[in-house]
Design a protein that fits this description.
- The structure is a single chain.
- This protein has about 650 residues and is mainly beta.
- Helix content is about 0%, strand content about 40%.
- Strands 18, 19, 21, 22, 25, 28 and 30 form a seven-stranded antiparallel sheet that branches.
- Strand 8 and strand 9 form a beta hairpin.
- The chain is elongated and about 110 Å long.
- The relative contact order is 0.09.
Length: about 650
């Protein structure tokens, strides 16, 4: 690798005079038909020139004023295939982007400087697309065309009207005149002029892949002068990545390069491009005697895969780092399909509960308060299939027992089969997708409150995956949406204890949790743990069937000490008694069958519940006792007694 100092570059190139920038007015900014989304137009160069910037006139009044929005410029060679569906990024290239902070006022002129200036040869036609990107995944731009009215006013360039797409949140006419201004510079006529034209990176990679040594990097350059460059002419190619000090690669032309002919120089893939995320790549040519420095560099932002890639666990997405309100822009690393709809049911929204565009009221799972925190929600009004919300890339390589947990809320008690949520898993290791790895769970999602859902990701341990939360709707109502929140992936620890037996034998103590931070109410295996200080109030909660006796037991924690068919698993006690087969060292702390003292209170009420509160007495720091209860069932499910989960109480 060779590096040229700045002094050498100055001597070789000199300091050429830049051509004067020129501006073409592309229409009246006050035009009632001006729009900022999906606008297509073609530029035809009369002289060889370089487009450096485009001013975009923003007219819309229905963009949420509190939400930052990103405006982009894309370009494509005129006539390249691109139907009026998702943008074909193999034909299109993004060359400019600007993010506008709120508020964005109607009538604003938005300047977008092109980080990759677009060069047009005399007579060449180039198509442009201006997009307001709300981050919902694929963007729609139709193929440009050269037919149509021409905007005159400059001898160097002409602009013709192209076609447009309907791209939310703008709902205006499908064809409008170009707006704003086109900034360009004429390329000077010089005796020697070698221009950097295009950066080539390949092969195409997926969202979770990374560039490696087997990938390729190349620079297309063009002889812009009238005279040919002879074979053997020496030159250098400079490579700059994310603002690094340029590295230089020397080469000699293998054959003569005629006027306006191109050649490609391929170099080894730099190690820096193997890191996740977008990279700004700047390549240039250095040729002795080159009289035009304006076209010596070309820049391209490439997406090196793995943007938002998750490698550290536990990982959680709570949707909290979003602007206040209701938006369709997912968090960093997340994408969703753009349904190109005109109402909220066409998207997943990210809402604080106070700004929902439909009638049903939700609150954030983490805060439990409307207007605090965010969750992902979609409406049931439309008849839509496959509304997909896709997670960042999750590298499960270091996890032995990966597990997904999320909270779901489905506010629809009737017509339960109509609208559903699924979870698909995209495995980037095998290149396969497992559809409906979870769901659709219908019966658990019919009440207006959050409920925990789980998916064992063990089959994908060692792989890099993406989770797809997919919703189907069936023309329900504005009052029956469904939502997800607090999505977690952890390396789950073994939980060999008894789980709560819902509606039969369940025991909770002040929100106790197991080693994976699951609560008793979530139906996961125990044992569960709670640490309390002297004077803390402890609420004991038992749930089963109506009018049944509770036997509260205590002893040392011993998960899976003994198991009894139809009854459950004992998680407390010492070695088994050879006569009874029961663990030893267990005490009956209270029993509804004992008529003495307060024990008769240990009977479930008509709703199947029993609750009482005690004050934590003083104990030395450490484990105090492990509780487990046996509750009679009245013969339910063939058994007359069932065991609850166990909870170890510790003092601090």
């Amino acid at each position: 690798m060779m590096r040229l100092p700045l002094v050498v570059l100055v001597v070789v190139l000199g300091w050429p005079t830049m051509s004067t920038a020129q501006v073409l007015n592309m229409g009246s900014p006050a035009s009632a038909t001006s729009r900022a989304s999906g606008l297509m137009f073609d530029v035809q160069a009369t002289s060889t020139l370089t487009v450096t910037a485009i001013d975009l006139y923003f007219r819309s009044t229905n963009l949420l004023a509190l939400v930052p929005h990103q405006f982009e410029v894309w370009t494509v060679t005129s006539g390249a295939p691109s139907a009026g569906v998702a943008m074909d990024t193999t034909a299109w290239k993004r060359v400019g982007v600007v993010t506008m902070a709120p508020p964005i006022v109607s009538g604003t002129l938005i300047p977008i400087s092109l980080y990759e200036p677009v060069r047009l040869l005399a007579g060449q036609v180039r198509g442009f697309c201006l997009i307001e990107n709300t981050g919902r995944g694929a963007m729609a731009c139709y193929a440009p065309y050269v037919a149509g009215p021409t905007i005159a006013g400059n001898a160097d360039v002409s602009v013709t009207v192209g076609s447009t797409s309907q791209h939310l949140p703008f709902a205006v006419s499908a064809q409008t005149a170009p707006i704003g201004h086109l900034h360009y510079q004429l390329d000077p006529v010089v005796a020697i002029d070698l221009a950097a034209e295009e950066i080539l990176v390949g092969p195409a990679i997926g969202p979770c892949d990374l560039y490696s040594a087997t990938s390729s990097l190349g620079l297309v350059f063009r002889n812009m002068a009238a005279a040919a460059l002879p074979a053997g002419t020496p030159l250098f190619v400079s490579v700059e990545i994310d603002g690094s000090v340029p590295a230089y690669h020397g080469l000699n032309l293998t054959q003569s390069l005629g006027s306006f002919q191109t050649d490609t120089f391929t170099i080894p893939m730099p190690v820096a491009l193997g890191a996740p995320g977008p990279h700004q790549l700047k390549l240039g040519v250095v040729l002795v005697g080159d009289g035009n420095a304006l076209n010596d560099l070309v820049t391209r932002v490439i997406h090196g895969g793995g943007e938002g890639r998750v490698t550290s666990f536990p990982w959680k997405e709570d949707f909290e780092n979003l602007p206040t309100g209701s938006i369709a822009l997912p968090p960093l690393g997340w994408t969703q399909d753009d349904q190109d709809g005109t109402s909220p049911e066409a998207e997943w929204l990210f809402d604080d509960g106070a700004s929902l565009p439909f009638s049903s009221a939700f609150w954030d799972h983490g805060s439990g308060v409307v207007g605090q925190g965010h969750f992902a929600v979609t409406d049931d009004r439309g008849d839509l299939l496959g509304l997909r919300l896709v997670s960042p890339c999750l590298d499960l390589g270091g996890l032995a027992n990966p597990r997904l947990k999320f909270w779901a809320w489905r506010n629809r008690a009737a017509n339960t089969a109509a609208s559903r949520i699924f979870v698909d898993v995209i495995d980037h290791g095998s290149g396969t997708t497992t559809f409906t790895a979870w769901g659709p769970t219908i019966t658990l999602l019919n009440s207006a409150f959050w409920q925990a859902q789980f998916l064992d990701l063990g089959p994908w341990a060692g792989s890099t995956i993406q989770l797809v939360f997919r919703a189907d709707t069936a023309n329900g109502s504005a009052g029956s949406p469904f939502a997800i929140d607090d999505i977690e992936v952890i390396d789950a620890l073994p939980t060999p204890g008894q789980a709560a037996q819902v509606h039969v034998a369940s025991f909770d103590l002040q929100g106790a949790r197991n080693v994976n931070q699951d609560r008793v109410e979530e139906g996961r295996p125990g044992p569960f743990f709670l640490t309390a200080a002297n004077g803390d109030l402890l609420e004991f909660q038992f749930d089963g069937r109506a009018g049944q006796i509770i036997h509260l037991l205590g002893g040392p924690l011993n998960p899976a000490a003994a198991s009894f068919p139809l009854i459950g698993q004992m998680d407390i006690g010492g070695p088994l008694d050879p006569l009874t087969g029961l663990p030893t060292g267990i005490q009956v702390l209270a029993s509804g069958a004992d008529p003495l003292g307060l024990n008769p209170l240990f009977v479930t009420d008509a709703a199947g519940s029993m609750r009482f509160t005690l004050t934590m007495p003083f104990f030395p720091t450490g484990p105090v006792v492990t509780f487990q209860a046996a509750i009679t069932t009245g013969g339910y499910n063939g058994s007359w007694v069932a065991l609850t989960n166990a909870i170890e109480l510790s003092a601090n």
